[in-house]
Design goal:
The complex is a heterodimer of chains A (168) and B (177). Chain A has a domain at 67-155: Nucleotidyltransferase, domain 5. Chain A has helices spanning 22-38, 105-118, 135-147; strands at 44-49, 70-75, 78-83, 86-92, 124-129, 152-155. Chain A starts with 21 loop residues before the first helix and ends in a 13-residue tail after the last strand. In chain A, β2 (70-75) and β3 form a beta hairpin. Chain A is α/β, with parallel strands linked by helices and 168 residues long. Chain A is elongated, with a radius of gyration of 33 Å. Chain B is α/β, with parallel strands linked by helices. Chain B has a domain at 61-167: Nucleotidyltransferase, domain 5 (2-Layer Sandwich). In chain B, 36% of the residues lie in helices and 22% in strands. Chain B has six helices and eight strands; from the N terminus they run ββααββββααβαβα. In chain B, strands 3-8-7-4-5-6 form a six-stranded mixed β-sheet. Chain B has a two-stranded antiparallel ribbon with strand order 1-2. In chain B, β4 (76-83) and β5 (88-90) form a beta hairpin. In chain B, 24% of the residues are buried. The chains are: A alpha/beta (168), B alpha/beta (177). At the A-B interface, α1, β1, α2 and α3 of A face α1, α2, β3, α5 and β8 of B. β1 (44-49) of chain A pairs antiparallel with β8 (160-167) of chain B.
Chain lengths: 168, 177
């Protein structure tokens, strides 16, 4: 007896069904322009400063010798670093006019790094800017101090002058 | 026998009919487009920020660049002041206070600004928060205005003062190397 023809002969080859991507495309068309409008191209940051207060000295532990006060003076002619009562170092301007604002930020960075190694427990730097110094210089100096571990930046708003003490 | 490569539809007993061409519409392959859009979506979701202050850089102002950044103190509420080289704008509504010269010399302008700062500080204090001042200033500004403004805001009970900057991870950009 002959076998009947195989049923699979009549089966048509099914093509794989393509995924319907139209809904997801619709979603993308809505979402991507919305995200592009709110996208942050520049990341803003905040730098905190503190103001000098009367009770600052009272927090120092009497058993330990307090680290010397560090004052960074921003002059139009460069930086002055005052440690304790003495002007420890002056960092002049860079010679080349095309240098970054003429201020030697790299030397300041190196000096602040060595000061942090020397006075590990000092976290505060007082900043005294000259009225003619640019705001950009002030912010970069604060940034360098914070980067080297001096988290508390005290903005000295008084107009008293720091005079260079004569080294004997 | 010579064989041809042409496939034909031949009905049994019927005439020779060539296969109809050009009727089937080919689907556009948009898989690669979907790939690109997915990457874009992930990238944008990463960069999205819902913080209004972090998002809105003041127009026409060049902010300084820093590598460090601080967080706003707990319970702190910020009052925003924009100091341009030619004008001072107060608050999120950009209320014009006056020019820098007016700020330094005109007593009326100073009085108005002080009263505005005091009103804002009182309002924030009444809500149980700590008044904080965010100064957005042009990097070409002289420090005398900043110092004056800080003195001014301290007298209006703003002890927490922040400077707004553009954040970068590149130290050499700050050092100018």
């Amino acid at each position: 007896m002959a076998h009947p023809p195989s049923k699979s002969r009549n089966l048509k080859k099914k093509e794989p069904r393509s995924l319907n991507l139209i809904p997801i495309m619709n979603l993308f068309i809505v979402v991507i322009p919305m995200l592009m409008t709110v996208m942050v191209s520049v990341h803003l940051a905040m730098i905190q400063i503190t103001l000098p207060t009367v009770g600052d000295e009272a927090q120092v532990n009497e058993n330990e010798e307090p680290p010397p006060r560090i004052i960074l003076v921003l002059q139009t002619t460069g930086f002055e670093i005052v440690v304790g009562e003495d002007v420890e170092e002056e960092i002049g301007l860079l010679e080349a006019e095309e240098q970054f604002g003429n201020f030697d930020y790299e030397s300041l960075n190196n000096r602040m790094k060595s000061l942090k190694e020397q006075y590990e427990k000092q976290y505060t730097v007082d900043i005294l800017p000259d009225p003619s110094v640019k705001y950009d210089t002030l912010l970069k100096s604060i940034d360098i101090c914070k980067f080297n571990g001096f988290q508390n930046i005290k903005y000295l708003t008084s107009s008293r002058k720091i005079y260079r003490a004569s080294k004997k | 026998m010579k064989r041809t490569a042409i496939v034909v539809n031949r009905k049994p007993g019927g005439p020779f009919e060539p296969r109809p061409r050009g009727k089937k519409v080919k689907d556009l392959n948009i898989t690669s487009l979907i790939d690109i859009l997915t990457i874009l979506l992930v990238f944008m979701l990463k960069n999205i920020s819902m913080d209004a202050i972090q998002k809105n850089a003041p127009e026409g102002m060049l902010l300084p660049t820093t590598i460090t950044k601080d967080e706003l103190i707990k319970k702190g509420l910020v009052v925003n002041v924009k100091i341009y080289t030619d004008k001072i704008l107060f608050g999120m509504d950009n209320f014009r206070i006056g020019s820098l010269d007016e700020f330094t010399s005109n007593q009326e302008v100073r009085k108005n600004l002080l009263s505005l700062l005091k009103i804002e500080a009182d309002r924030i204090t009444n809500t149980g928060s700590i008044p904080s001042l965010l100064i957005q200033a042009d990097k070409e500004l002289d420090c005398r205005y900043i110092t004056d403004f800080i003195n001014f805001s301290a007298s209006a009970s703003f002890a927490n003062i922040y400077f707004s900057t553009i954040h970068t991870d590149n130290l050499t950009e700050v050092l100018g190397l």
